[in-house]
Amino acid sequence: MKLTAYLGRAASVVLLALGAAGMSSMAAGTASAAAPASAKATIVLVHGALADSSSWNGVIARLQADGYVVVAAADPLRSLKSDSDYVSGIVKNVGGPVVLVGHSYGGSIITNAATGADNVKALVYVAAYAPDDGESAFDLTGKFPGSILPAALAPPIALAGGAHDLYVQQAKFRPVFAADVPERQTRLMGATQRPVTDVALKEASGAPAWKTIPSWFVYGSADKVIPPAVHAFMAQRAGAREAIVVKGASHVVMVSHPGIVAELIEQAAAETAK
Predict the structure, then answer these.
(1) SS3 81
(2) Percent above pLDDT 70 for the chain
(3) What value does the CA radius of gyration of the chain take, rounded to a whole number of Å?
(4) Domain limits, the chain
(5) Averaged pLDDT, 78-84
């Protein structure tokens, strides 16, 4: 695996040996949209917990400008099994090769949704979980110290059947999720966050697609949700083709550094098209 460290927004890199929310704007894609067949891979983006598909808007604009068809799935955030089945259905509807991209809890979803999907050619983990068989997002969050998410959660909302909806306290949203995003924008992100159930975050993953499908990782050195040590561990374990560490970036690296994320997605699409 190649580890690339980005110095801020600059394109200069250091090669080393290795080892949530959305912007308030128009939705760039819908979960029911089936992308048409294309010479290029279709990019399917899966947002994470406490976010929506508009969190990808900066990335989508760049991918579309380069000629890619993009589908931003509206992840239900109810359970890992049902969410993965939902995304799997979107992938099956695409007429051609797919690069499947997940942010945060969306990484758990793509890990399961891509299993057995012959048209998924690459997996891209954007500050995302990449669980092994039997692991949960909850397990991985606490694998190494550094996450401040648990202490920032608002009182859970009880649901029928014993599950609970989880939110982040709006006053704590920026320092936890998006410290490198302008405050005005993070206030909107905190207000529009979509809840995830505790069941989804604690549900054990199935057989991981990253064992058979090439993977790429990008994450921030200042991620306060998933500790950078956890990201490095998951990338190395998955045998990632490349892992990019964006210096000073928060958990929403696709919002604060959309160009870096789009470039990595395009790299994954190009390398797996050969």
Answers:
(1) helix
(2) 88
(3) 17
(4) 2-272
(5) 98
Tokens of 190: 């905190």
Pick the CATH number of 2-272 from 3.40.50.300, 3.90.550.10, 3.40.50.1820, 3.20.20.450: 3.40.50.1820
Q: Which two tokens stand for residue 148?
A: 């401040």
Q: Are 20 and 55 spatial neighbours (Cβ–Cβ below 8 Å)?
A: yes
pLDDT digits (tens, 9 = 90+) for 145-160: 999 999 999 999 999 9
The answer to whether residue 225 scores a pLDDT higher than 80 is yes
Cα–Cα dist 245/193, whole Å: 25
Cβ atoms of 60 and 53 within 8 Å: the answer is no
In whole angstroms, give the CA distance from residue 137 to residue 267: 27
Q: How far is CA 237 from the centre of its chain?
A: 17
The per-residue pLDDT of the chain, averaged, comes to 90
* Tokens coding 171: 């006053």
